[in-house]
From TrEMBL:
Residues 127-283 form the ELMO domain. This is ELMO domain-containing protein 1. It comes from the Eukaryota. The lineage of its organism: Eukaryota, Metazoa, Chordata, Craniata, Vertebrata. One of its GO terms (molecular function) is GTPase activator activity. PROSITE patterns: ELMO. InterPro entries: ELMO_dom, ELMO_domain-containing.
């Protein structure tokens, strides 16, 4: 244990000495080198984030958790602390601001998603009920729901005659994602639902949607989704970005389920875990954008 501690501090001191030497040789601090040598997107933002968090300066360490409204002032503080003249390096401030917007936005997105996850479905809340009924109308537009409490809910993959009991694990987040998928990717959502009802593929659409919500939530909280969001969101990633990612994961899981050709629903956990590992592997690539059609990399080029 003592040897490990000594090795840690030795490496830390060595790294700081190396940074000092490189700055003297190049005339640029680490933040400048990252912004000038790494193209916009996840690779740059994650390096900036690591540099700020690993700084010996408390002001730099806390810059990754400031309020969005304070980012502009934070950039000025960073430039002053690093003795960088903004008139000579105007592009650096723009680049740092774009990175900080993504970093702070990701933290705020986790908080927003967590709030939805913790809010239970309330059948006495008109807004909750309205969203639930919208889900039915989007998925089954030609089949009117005969009653709020009905076995019809099983047709879209709920376990019983009242869906509210199925939202316990993911709270309102599960419902938000399902409604977004059904409303904005209606054709795909209806096709996935139709396929899920076939004996060959048989699984519960809504229950799987809530389960994939859990998968997306864990990817977000673990930081694995930073690669994707930092590549597709030119500024702060939002709840919409998260929901678009859910749509992608839902569709991809459906295709993966068909490819795996499981014997029955009892193999769900095995297939889900394999799918999870596949997504994690993809996200290790700093160039990865899970939903290319949502990518905004082009708008990052000049940042």
């Amino acid at each position: 244990m003592f040897v490990q501690v000594c090795l840690y501090f030795y490496c830390k001191c060595l790294w700081r000495c190396l940074k000092f030497v490189v700055r003297k040789l190049t005339g640029r601090c680490e933040l400048q080198r990252i912004c000038y040598n790494t193209k916009p997107g996840a690779a740059r933002t994650m390096k900036i984030e690591a540099s700020l968090k690993g700084s010996k300066s408390k002001r730099l360490q806390t810059s990754v958790s400031v309020h969005p409204d304070a980012i502009e002032k934070t950039i000025d503080d960073i430039m002053e602390l690093k003795r960088i003249n903004p008139d000579i390096n105007p592009q650096l401030g723009v680049s740092l601001q774009a990175c900080l917007l993504q970093i702070v936005g990701y933290r705020n997105l986790i908080a927003e998603v967590e709030k939805l996850r913790r809010e239970p479905y309330d059948s006495e809340n008109p807004k909750h009920e309205e969203m639930l009924l919208k889900l039915w109308k989007c998925l089954k537009p030609n089949s009117p729901l005969k009653a709020r409490i009905s076995k019809q809910w099983c047709e879209i993959g709920f376990q019983g005659d009242d869906p509210k009991t199925d939202f316990r694990g993911m709270g309102l987040l599960g419902l938000y994602n399902l409604v977004y998928f059904a409303e904005w990717d209606t054709e795909i959502a209806q096709q996935v639902l139709s396929d899920s009802l076939q004996p060959k593929y048989s699984y519960s659409f809504a229950i799987v949607g809530i389960n994939i919500t859990d998968l997306a939530y864990n990817l977000l909280v673990s930081g694995a989704l930073k690669t994707h969001f930092y590549n597709v969101a030119p500024e702060a990633p939002t709840l919409t970005h998260f929901q678009q990612t859910f749509c992608y994961l839902m569709h991809e899981f459906h295709k993966f389920w068909i490819e795996e050709d499981p014997l029955d629903i009892m193999e769900f956990n095995r297939v889900r875990e394999k799918f999870h590992k596949r997504i994690l592997k993809q996200l290790q690539n700093p160039e990865m954008a899970l939903c290319p059609h949502f990518a905004a990399s082009e708008s990052l080029i000049n940042m």
